[in-house]
Amino acid sequence: MKGKTAIITGGGSGFGQETAIKLAQQGVNICVVDISDENGLKTVELCEKEGAQAIFVKADVSNLDQVKNYVAKTIEAFGKIDLFFNNAGISGSGVRTLECSEDEFEAIVNVNLKGAFYGLKYVVNEMLKTGGGSVVNTASLGGVVGMPTLGVYSATKHAIVGLTKTIAGEYGRDNIRINAIAPGTNETPMVKAFPADAIAAMADAVPMGRLGQPHEVADVVVFLLSEQASYIHGAVISIDGGSAAL
Ligand SMILES: NC(=O)c1ccc[n+]([C@@H]2O[C@H](COP(=O)([O-])OP(=O)(O)OC[C@H]3O[C@@H](n4cnc5c(N)ncnc54)[C@H](O)[C@@H]3O)[C@@H](O)[C@H]2O)c1
């Protein structure tokens, strides 16, 4: 992986940050894309601590100009893009799905679907110029099964699965591998803030009896991005303690 260049959207927290650090440990140049300066700059600092070169580009992934800008800034800094973790996403307020407001519907679709599509469109275009690359899109357990009270989120994540499979069919011969991950509920800062009994109930619903840890997701992402996964293409990999199996 040494000398390769990765873009990680939503790189300022959670799965994105964990993945950035693990890639930095392997000598990958990192472009952290995030809407939050604080989060993005923190990840850059953590990558630099690992001895990697890293830049932060502030962007809202649902804004086309800002997507074009993070692609351009990465090329300017590192000359190419080899790896893309297309990961930024938001969930929802947890109301019954048809009670979701129009504004919330639009916000979720804009970030999770439009943002992921724009990223793919402009990053893959750069990969075509340099002879290939590897992409991991972040779907969700909610992208392979329904998710009560998070129906719009679930719909956008099903869309990510559709995009992944379709684009894999279209770009495999261009030496661009495209896969998706479908993580179950993880102990991210957001989940950790829930009441203890709610966390216990969520963990109890998982066949393995516990929630995931972000590093368990990041390990799979790094593997999928690497040459070790050289014949994995168009796959949707569940990382959910068995939840999708039920
Ligand atoms: N945490 C879970 O349990 C879980 C489970 C399944 C799927 N996911 C998915 O994994 C991805 C990452 O989740 P996480 O838990 O690491 O999230 P997180 O909230 O810890 O981090 C997300 C990062 O994305 C950034 N971000 C939000 N909106 C953005 C935008 N419009 N443009 C650019 N950056 C933006 C945030 O500032 C934040 O730094 C998301 O797509 C999420 O839907 C999470």
UniProtKB/TrEMBL annotation:
GO terms for biological process: bile acid metabolic process. CDD domains: SDR_c. One of its GO terms (molecular function) is oxidoreductase activity. It comes from the Bacteria. Its EC number is 1.1.1.-. Pfam families: adh_short_C2 (PF13561). Keywords: Oxidoreductase. It is an enzyme of class 1 (oxidoreductase). The keyword Oxidoreductase applies. Belongs to the short-chain dehydrogenases/reductases (SDR) family. This is Levodione reductase. The lineage of its organism: Bacteria, Bacillati, Bacillota, Bacilli, Lactobacillales. The gene is lvr.
